[in-house]
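Bumping my old thread because nobody answered last time. Still need a sequence for this structure:
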């Protein structure tokens, strides 16, 4: 009975370390990684895995690593069954590691990375998974030491850049802005744009504003106004047709937005174009 009580006490305390390890398997098909408040490492542990994401096709082999910072979501397609070790680290654990390193804990943020190799991450991940499978014979101190060692290594090798507050990465920003341009005439929801970027909707609002200097909805309005101005200057379309082509719900909506952004009405833009 004493051994059982010790194990229950250990299991109750372990989550407070801010470290969780699990072994995950999935059949072939669509994989959706939801946004969570923890940082995550995914270490491929099975046979070669073929798949594709929005950007390219890939083949993962054992030991390939993905690093997902807190708040990041992602979607991809697996052509084969997959097996991986998943390690979750809380922001509090990284803050503690940053303090031990003499760094600003408010800057304990990681950079998103895909399909890279790091022998030290592999070594710690396999050790954590072996300890999990064996029922945690190493005890709480063993898990805590490995978790801190992993956090220190991550902050030393893969910290987010802080020349300014972190926004969307260049590939993420390019994907989102290109998607907006290609779908201006459609209903652009925040959830859809967040999916394109691979982050949560609330995270997209913050990161997009840091990257572009204005909220995502205001950026969309400005791009629609520019599209409408171009179409009006080209001629050949009625104001109502231009409004729909540029993604506005109706002509008066376009007029209000154009007056706010450009300071002129659609009729003035069309008239000035004809006068040239």
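Sorry it took so long. Here it is:
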């Amino acid at each position: 009975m004493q051994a059982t009580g010790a194990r229950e006490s250990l299991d109750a305390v372990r989550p407070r370390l801010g470290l969780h390890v699990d072994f995950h398997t999935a059949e072939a098909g669509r994989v959706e990684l939801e946004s969570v408040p923890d940082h995550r490492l995914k270490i491929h542990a099975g046979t070669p895995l073929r798949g594709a994401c929005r950007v390219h096709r890939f083949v993962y082999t054992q030991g390939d690593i993905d690093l997902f910072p807190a708040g990041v979501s992602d979607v991809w397609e697996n052509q084969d069954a997959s097996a991986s070790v998943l390690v979750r680290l809380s922001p509090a654990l990284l803050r503690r590691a940053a303090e031990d390193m003499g760094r600003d804990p408010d800057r304990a943020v990681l950079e998103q990375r895909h399909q890279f190799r790091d022998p030290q991450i592999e070594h710690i991940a396999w050790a954590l998974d072996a300890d999990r499978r064996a029922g945690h014979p190493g005890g709480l101190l063993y898990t805590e030491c490995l978790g801190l060692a992993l956090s220190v290594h991550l902050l030393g090798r893969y910290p987010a850049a802080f020349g300014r507050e972190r926004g969307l990465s260049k590939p993420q920003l390019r994907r989102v802005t290109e998607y907006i341009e290609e779908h201006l005439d459609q209903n652009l929801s925040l959830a859809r744009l967040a999916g394109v970027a691979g982050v949560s909707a609330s995270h997209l609002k913050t990161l997009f504003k840091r990257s572009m200097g204005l909220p995502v909805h205001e950026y969309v309005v400005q791009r629609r106004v520019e599209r409408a101005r171009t179409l009006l200057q080209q001629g050949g379309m009625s104001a109502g047709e231009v409004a729909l082509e540029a993604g506005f719900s109706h002509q008066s909506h376009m007029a209000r937005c154009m007056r706010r952004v450009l300071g002129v009405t659609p009729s003035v833009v069309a008239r000035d174009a004809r006068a040239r």
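The CA atoms of residues 32 and 229 lie 39 Å apart. Let me know if any region looks off to you.
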